[in-house]
């Protein structure tokens, strides 16, 4: 059961081979056993989970079960959960019990999914290693001396270690795809606007997008289908008909199920900067795709190299404003002692925020300041448009784009902690996708040195989620990387 | 040097609270006067994760305003964040519009002064933009702490910015009054200044006539026309005195103290915030389609300018009368209804009654004309009876009082019940004249000695004898004939 796919779990629940309460207990016990080592969860909601599981069992008994009814999952602690601590990985919200559910949370609740708890993350989703959490770093289940990636590192580690079958995440510059790659699981970030941001604590509003983690593309497709959909409470949510993202998840029709698929390989992604073990795994995966009938074509994303500088202007700018509400006035951390209002603000925020959050608030404040706005913010927005245009040009020559998810496998905890720029560069392949608002997926494609997972990133055109998932699914039908589990 | 050597330059920024039922970015109520914080929802208190959703009713009111002042209603405008920290600003930023406002340009014609010295002037508007209000900080009654009431947070505002076109406090007040009347006329703002629904900031500077603009100081939060006038007058004199004493004006924001009648500095330019405006990524650009604009246009009421022109051109009213009668929508509506009932031929006497006795009575009672116990139909009935000679103008005043006191259903009913019908019977009037002349020989002699006043005294006596019912024109004519005959 621990390693079962959602389809298998659904069948077991429907056949009453296991109850939802038993299933939840199974995973809760695994969390109890392994979380002290992995630190993947900030909050485990045992009582809430068992209550939800009992309700799910009643629903299953009544014949009203949906695809996710009774299925355990975990939510990244960026999603507000009613009555449950919602910290966003920060001391600032160490006392914040949300009075409401995020749209994603309420959708999954309504679907009958069982929330086991809230997963660890980089503070306010700022980071690539999960070392920026007030609640301590998350360990990579493949090597606990290493980072799991970030910022959704807790969700990725939880799914990789089978502390939960599936989990939600968010991706602003790679925060679903990069940890999925580093932990050997599958993760998808859909087109910007597909998943409502209501109740998802904002880091960089124009880039933040909810996403799904699972062992396989098929599991991700089911979770994404339940998470997505128009929400009138989010003005950037896209008003489109509901989609079944699993519609292209199918058994291979023949030995060339991907015949006709054109995979674009951006020249710039395969130039210098990629570690050799990553390159070898990615090349092998591309060979596999060709065996499945796909053709590969070189494409160019000439402005992709500008993605990191553009991102590190736009994201901090938005963050500096988004995080202004954490002022100690209405909720969250407030300094114990202060002489006046200015000191209350200064001390509450100085105490409540960690170093990386402060760094980005300072950068964001600077680039929006009078006299610098045009030189930084407007310039970055221009780059953003150029990057989006590059992708559109590439998609005239291919159907999906493929490349490495990250330039290296997971690094050691502490290795890049003192070098923010090195840390930022680790997101070089994922960030451009957020700037363009495109869907992106990472699936495991082998192992590098030290038996560490390597992820392959697939990038689709707008609303190409089902195709990305279907493509990855065919790969996973022919390979077993996604079935490997850490010891 | 005297004040006449200086030219005053004034521009106004007015915050008009839009009369939507719910807030500009949330579904919470905007009703005034609720207990603190009961009308602040998750979005208003800026819980983590909440997002704004634009209230289209607020946009519609902005469109109405833009159409009313002949402005460009932008097909695309952008909401921006204005960042600053204050406890009653829950998000740490205010959602406003900065580079691309929804209303661009436009103008308002004002009438300044009274009588022969009155003149018209057209004030250009720079822009009007949508934004949300902040909450309120309450610094009393909390034992050294401050209370925060977020009921007002997120209330929709239209900030209306004029060009620096006004040259006196009188012009500034006339503009503010015209704007106040207009926003109520087109029903986008209740105009309640005590409750803060219409607040003025005045940018004031002085310069040598024809010279470059002087440095301005901004007087914040003036919530009555009287304070607006007082504050500008004080500020202008202070600036002139300062310059003439060899000082320089520093750009600053000042507050007006109604108790002392003085302005005092709140913050200098050095203390000014850098608001770090940038487009709000939570909101899409505001797109107003030609169809939307056309629909709003088709639902617009007749505007005061058009109504004024119609009153002058079609009904023959003077500019003064037409301006007075279109100064507020309530007066204009009352007047229009009165003429509708009385007929266009009586437009002028209707105007006189609305601006005269009715206005006086309504003002004395401190009520709105729409609450007048005398209805337009009743007033029209009264005007018609005067016009057709059934009663005199003086008896008309008596009938009006009776209508005001609800002594009868109509002018006719009161005239009938109180026997006020005018006497046009020449024989009866002559008999009364004869009696009066016999009893007032002294006045008759004075008249014959050339004292015209004596004639009026005699007319008065005849009218008194008739209890006011004699036709005054007939009395005049018959009396003259008798005395000269």
Automatic annotation (TrEMBL), chain A:
PROSITE patterns: AMIDASES. InterPro entries: Amidase, Amidase_CS, Amidase_dom, AS_sf, GatA. It comes from the Bacteria. The keyword RNA-binding does not apply. It catalyses: L-glutamyl-tRNA(Gln) + L-glutamine + ATP + H2O = L-glutaminyl-tRNA(Gln) + L-glutamate + ADP + phosphate + H(+). It is an enzyme of class 6 (ligase). Keywords: ATP-binding, Ligase, Nucleotide-binding, Protein biosynthesis. Its EC number is 6.3.5.7. The keyword DNA repair does not apply. Gene3D superfamilies: Amidase signature (AS) domain (3.90.1300.10). The active site is at 76 (charge relay system), 151 (charge relay system), 175 (acyl-ester intermediate). Heterotrimer of A, B and C subunits. Belongs to the amidase family. GatA subfamily. This is Glutamyl-tRNA(Gln) amidotransferase subunit A.
From TrEMBL, chain B:
It comes from the Bacteria. The keyword Protein biosynthesis applies. Keywords: ATP-binding, Ligase, Nucleotide-binding, Protein biosynthesis. It catalyses: L-aspartyl-tRNA(Asn) + L-glutamine + ATP + H2O = L-asparaginyl-tRNA(Asn) + L-glutamate + ADP + phosphate + 2 H(+); L-glutamyl-tRNA(Gln) + L-glutamine + ATP + H2O = L-glutaminyl-tRNA(Gln) + L-glutamate + ADP + phosphate + H(+). Residues 333-483 form the Asn/Gln amidotransferase domain. Allows the formation of correctly charged Asn-tRNA(Asn) or Gln-tRNA(Gln) through the transamidation of misacylated Asp-tRNA(Asn) or Glu-tRNA(Gln) in organisms which lack either or both of asparaginyl-tRNA or glutaminyl-tRNA synthetases. The reaction takes place in the presence of glutamine and ATP through an activated phospho-Asp-tRNA(Asn) or phospho-Glu-tRNA(Gln). PANTHER family: GLUTAMYL-TRNA GLN AMIDOTRANSFERASE SUBUNIT B MITOCHONDRIAL AND PROKARYOTIC PET112-RELATED, GLUTAMYL-TRNA(GLN) AMIDOTRANSFERASE SUBUNIT B, MITOCHONDRIAL. Heterotrimer of A, B and C subunits. NCBIfam families: gatB, PRK05477.1-2, PRK05477.1-4, PRK05477.1-5. Belongs to the GatB/GatE family. GatB subfamily. This is Aspartyl/glutamyl-tRNA(Asn/Gln) amidotransferase subunit B. The gene is gatB.
């Amino acid at each position: 059961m621990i390693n079962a796919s959602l389809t298998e779990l659904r069948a077991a629940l429907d056949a009453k081979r296991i109850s939802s309460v038993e299933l939840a207990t199974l995973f809760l016990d695994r969390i109890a056993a392994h979380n002290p080592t992995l630190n993947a969860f900030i909050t485990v909601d045992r009582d809430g989970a068992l209550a939800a599981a009992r309700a799910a069992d009643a629903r299953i008994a009544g014949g009203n079960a949906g695809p996710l009814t009774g299925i355990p999952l975990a939510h990244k602690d960026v999603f507000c959960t009613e009555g449950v601590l919602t910290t966003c990985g920060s001391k600032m919200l160490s006392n914040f019990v949300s009075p409401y559910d995020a749209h994603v949370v309420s959708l999954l609740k309504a679907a009958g999914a069982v929330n086991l708890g809230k997963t660890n993350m980089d503070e306010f989703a700022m980071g690539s290693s999960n070392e920026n959490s007030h609640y301590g770093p998350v360990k990579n289940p493949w090597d606990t001396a290493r980072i799991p990636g970030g910022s959704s590192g807790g969700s990725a580690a939880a799914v990789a270690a089978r502390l939960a079958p599936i989990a939600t995440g968010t991706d602003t510059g790679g925060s679903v795809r990069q940890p999925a790659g580093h932990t050997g699981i599958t993760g998808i970030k859909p087109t910007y606007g597909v998943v409502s941001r209501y109740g998802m604590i904002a880091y960089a509003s124009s880039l933040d997008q909810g996403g799904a983690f699972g062992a396989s593309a098929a599991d991700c497709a089911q979770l994404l289908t339940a998470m997505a959909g128009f929400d009138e409470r989010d003005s950037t949510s896209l008003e489109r008909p509901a989609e079944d993202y699993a519609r292209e998840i199918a058994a291979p029709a023949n030995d060339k199920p991907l015949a006709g698929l054109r995979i674009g390989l951006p020249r710039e992604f395969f130039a210098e900067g990629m570690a050799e073990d990553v390159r070898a795994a990615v090349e092998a995966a591309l060979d596999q795709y060709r065996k499945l009938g796909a053709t590969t074509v070189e494409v160019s994303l000439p402005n992709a190299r500008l993605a990191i500088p553009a991102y590190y202007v736009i994201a901090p700018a938005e963050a500096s404003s988004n995080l202004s509400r954490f002022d100690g006035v209405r909720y969250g951390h407030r300094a114990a002692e202060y002489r006046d209002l200015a000191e209350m603000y200064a001390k509450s925020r100085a105490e409540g925020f960690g170093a990386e959050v402060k760094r980005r608030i300072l950068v964001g404040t600077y680039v929006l300041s009078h006299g610098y706005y045009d030189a930084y913010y407007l310039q970055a927005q221009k780059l953003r448009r150029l990057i989006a245009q590059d992708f559109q040009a590439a998609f005239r020559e291919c159907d999906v784009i493929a490349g490495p998810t990250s330039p290296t496998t997971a690094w050691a905890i502490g290795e890049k902690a003192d070098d923010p720029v090195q840390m930022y560069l680790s997101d070089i392949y994922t960030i451009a996708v957020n700037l363009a608002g495109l869907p992106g997926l990472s699936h495991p494609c082998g192992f590098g040195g030290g038996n560490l997972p390597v992820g392959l990133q697939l990038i689709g055109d707008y609303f190409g989620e089902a195709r990305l998932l279907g493509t990855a699914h065919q790969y996973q039908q022919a390979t077993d990387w996604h079935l490997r589990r850490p010891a | 040097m005297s004040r006449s050597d200086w030219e005053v330059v004034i521009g106004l920024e007015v915050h008009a609270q839009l009369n939507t039922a719910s807030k500009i970015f949330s579904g919470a109520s905007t009703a005034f006067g609720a207990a603190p914080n009961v009308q602040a929802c998750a979005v208003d208190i800026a819980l983590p994760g909440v997002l704004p959703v634009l209230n289209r009713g607020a946009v519609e009111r902005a469109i109405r305003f833009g159409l009313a002042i002949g402005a460009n209603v932008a097909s695309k405008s952008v909401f921006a964040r204005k960042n600053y920290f204050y406890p009653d600003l829950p998000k740490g930023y205010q959602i406003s519009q900065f580079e691309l406002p929804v209303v661009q340009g436009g103008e308002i014609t004002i009438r300044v002064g009274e009588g022969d010295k009155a003149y018209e002037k057209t004030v250009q508007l720079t822009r009007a933009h949508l934004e949300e209000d902040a909450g309120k900080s309450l610094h009393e009654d909390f034992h050294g702490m401050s209370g925060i009431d977020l009921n007002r947070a997120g209330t929709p505002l239209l900030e209306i910015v004029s060009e620096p076109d006004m040259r006196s406090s009188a012009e500034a007040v006339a503009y503010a009054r015209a704007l106040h009347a207009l926003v109520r006329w087109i029903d986008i703002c209740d105009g309640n200044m005590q409750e803060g629904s219409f607040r003025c900031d005045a940018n004031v500077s002085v310069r040598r006539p024809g010279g470059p603009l002087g440095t301005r100081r901004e007087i914040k939060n003036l919530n009555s026309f009287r304070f607006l006038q007082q504050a500008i007058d004080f500020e202008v004199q202070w600036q002139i005195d300062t310059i003439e004493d060899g000082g320089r004006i520093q750009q600053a924001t000042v507050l007006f103290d109604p108790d002392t009648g003085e302005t005092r500095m709140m913050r200098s330019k050095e203390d000014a915030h850098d608001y770090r405006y940038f487009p709000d990524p939570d909101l899409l650009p505001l797109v107003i389609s030609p169809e939307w604009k056309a629909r709003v246009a088709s639902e617009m009421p007749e505007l005061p300018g058009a109504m004024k022109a119609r009153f002058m051109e079609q009904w023959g009213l003077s500019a003064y009368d037409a301006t007075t009668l279109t100064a507020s929508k309530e007066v204009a509506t009352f007047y229009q209804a009165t003429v509708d009932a009385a007929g266009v031929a009586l437009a002028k006497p209707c105007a006189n009654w609305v601006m005269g006795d009715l206005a006086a009575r309504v003002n004395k009672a401190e009520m709105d004309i729409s609450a007048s116990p005398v209805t337009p139909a009743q007033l029209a009935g009264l005007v018609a009876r005067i016009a057709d000679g059934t009663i005199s103008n003086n008896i008309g005043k008596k009938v009006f009082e009776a209508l005001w006191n609800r002594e009868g259903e109509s002018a006719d009913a009161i005239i009938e019940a109180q026997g006020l019908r005018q006497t046009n019977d020449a024989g009866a009037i002559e008999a009364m004249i004869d009696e009066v002349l016999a009893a007032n020989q002294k006045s008759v002699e004075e008249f014959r000695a050339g004292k015209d006043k004596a004639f009026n005294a005699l007319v008065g006596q005849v009218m008194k004898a008739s209890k006011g019912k004699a036709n005054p024109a007939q009395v005049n004519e018959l009396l003259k004939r008798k005395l000269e005959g």
